[in-house]
Amino acid sequence: MSQTIAILTGASRGLGASLARGLLAPGTHLVTLARRTDDDLASLARDQGVTLEQVPVDLSDAEAAASVAERIFAKLPRDASRYLLINNAGTVNPVANTAALTDVAAIGAAFTLNVTAVMVLTARFLAATQGLSARRQIVNISSGAGRNPNAGWGVYCATKAALDMYTRVVNAEHREHGVQAVSMAPGVVDTGMQETIRSSSVESFPALARFQEMKATGKLSTPEDVARRILAYTERDDFGQTEIDDIRNYS
Predict the structure, then answer these.
(1) In total, how many domains does the chain have?
(2) Is 66 helix (H, G, I), strand (E, B) or coil?
(3) Does the predicted model carry a pTM greater than 0.90?
(4) In a domain, 29, yes or no
(5) Residue 78 lies in a domain
(6) How far apart are CA 145 and CA 155, in angstroms?
(7) Which residues have a Cβ under 8 Å from the Cβ of 46 and sit 6 or more positions away?
(8) CATH number of the domain that 19 lies in?
(9) Residue 155 sits in which domain range?
(10) Rounded mean pLDDT, 239-248
């Protein structure tokens, strides 16, 4: 019997890689979904005695996301004391002025990864854990961009705003049945996404200089610290009381 069964998306780099490592604790059964597997994570899991399943998948592909969601949750053990789904995978692309957002494929892939895959995985999670007395937690990694407009981020802001509202709907439907869902902004984290942002043109992203300055002056949070705080938050008794939240509200 596992004490915690955790399902984590976007686990191969950045915040997701740090979350995966933070979840490597005895009694945990960890399932990761990412474009590639992580040999170092597998080695660490063996050293910690943690059951690890790494599922390679591109969650920006709607059919692949639906197929993998059905497969992993169909065999999910039902004897754990806690089930934790962390929807972390996401993209900031395409970055462009709204007048230039004409790449239908890029827009669709972003919505699939940032929103559709979350919905499909959450639906399967809810069905697979229905009726259990275990603690059932969902953490959707959102962004302040979903709550405040940023020029050049029409797609990113829209997807994260959708994620926030979707989290509220999940709670409206399932909180009375013991599900706790949170849409959590992680702050500005020093990850590959930030590298992508800093490589944007000022024409596409007018706030470019501010993000470059944050990197240059050490104002970005480390993935390790943010992951530690998010996982500590999932252990709190007041988890889920604030459904649209920011990890910077917690030490």
Answers:
(1) 1
(2) helix
(3) yes
(4) yes
(5) yes
(6) 10
(7) none
(8) 3.40.50.720
(9) 4-188+223-249
(10) 97
